[in-house]
Design a protein that fits this description.
With 310 residues, the protein is of the alpha/beta class. The chain contains eight helices and ten strands. Helix 2 packs parallel to helix 4.
């Protein structure tokens, strides 16, 4: 009788099972080694890619200065000298129309200021210590304890012409300065387009209302007056999502009924074409401005500004 294991005996089956376990363990170990190698390779590639991307990013940053958030200046820019509260300080509000050279035969060439003259005027004002602000900033300083630079000035642009976007915006933006767009709603269909207005808002510009169609407000019926004054404000607010807290009288024409309509529409104030500095002691609905004409250049603009202060 044989005393060794026979085929099919329990001992023979145990030995086979043990071999199988050993083989599985070896297979798992081999697979684990493969995974470790794969992870190491992937990590190496990731580091390489990250280094390459970082290098490219650094090269981009060296070429391009970082963009300001939204392009909009702060309420009182850090570069503004002597930022202070000014509850009684008059502020000059310049007003322009077209920032371009007038074509031959233009009926009102004085409404056109060349980009070169505008840039020179901005540079001259900056050299004298002025710093541009919005009308809202002026109002907040007068009535709510807000801050202004030591020499604030407002650049306002009437009607809404394409050149205010294409020429005035880059010149002011180069200094971090905002403008004030007094928008005639009708011109959104023919001249200054909505995407351009949005770009101006993103650059810190204030948008105020200048009616729908630029009529003589003193000659309108009560219903039409309400539509031009209150309706234009609502249209701009709905389209661009901005407050529209100020109104600009077309051609500077207004009377007590027009002022009442502007008050009733919820505006905080309104600008005129009457020469002089805007003052907190006068009616907020009769703010004076300084007109800049096409023939002024730097000297004429400075003389008008000096005359307004007297």
């Amino acid at each position: 009788m044989s005393t060794g294991p026979t085929p099919g005996s329990p001992r023979r089956r145990d030995t086979s099972a043990g071999s199988s376990v050993v083989r599985r363990r070896r297979l798992v170990a081999a697979l684990a080694a493969v995974v470790v190698v794969a992870i190491a390779v992937a990590a190496s590639l990731a580091v390489s890619r990250h280094g390459s991307d970082a290098g490219r990013s650094a090269r981009r940053d060296a070429r391009t200065p970082p963009a300001r958030h939204g392009g909009a200046p702060a309420a009182v820019p850090a570069t503004a000298p002597g930022a202070h509260r000014a509850p009684h300080e008059p502020v000059p509000i310049l007003f322009y129309h077209v920032i371009n050279r007038p074509p031959p035969g233009t009926p009102e060439p004085e409404l056109w200021v060349s980009p070169q003259d505008f840039a020179a005027q901005v540079a001259a004002l900056a050299g004298r210590g002025y710093h541009a602000v919005t009308l809202q900033q002026v109002y907040d300083a007068w009535h709510h304890g807000g801050l202004l630079p030591s020499k604030p000035i407002v650049f306002s642009f009437d009607d809404g012409y394409h050149s205010q976007y294409s020429n005035a915006l880059p010149i002011l933006r180069s200094r971090g300065w905002p403008g004030v767009l007094n928008l005639e709603v009708k011109l959104l269909a023919t001249d200054l387009r909505p995407p351009e207005v949005r770009a101006m808002i993103a650059a810190g510009w204030e948008v105020d209302a200048h009616t729908f169609t630029h009529p003589d407000l003193t000659a309108l019926s009560a219903d039409r007056l309400r539509q031009e004054v209150a309706g234009s404000r609502e249209a701009i607010r709905r389209r661009f999502g901005v407050p529209v807290n100020f109104f600009c009288y077309p051609a500077g024409s207004f009377d007590p009924a027009v002022v009442a309509a502007v008050r009733s529409a919820g505006y905080l104030g309104a600008t005129t074409t009457q020469p002089g500095l805007a003052s907190p002691v006068s009616s907020p609905f009769e703010l004076r401005r300084v007109r800049v004409n096409g023939s002024d250049g730097v000297g004429g603009m400075e003389r008008s500004l000096a005359g307004a202060a007297t």
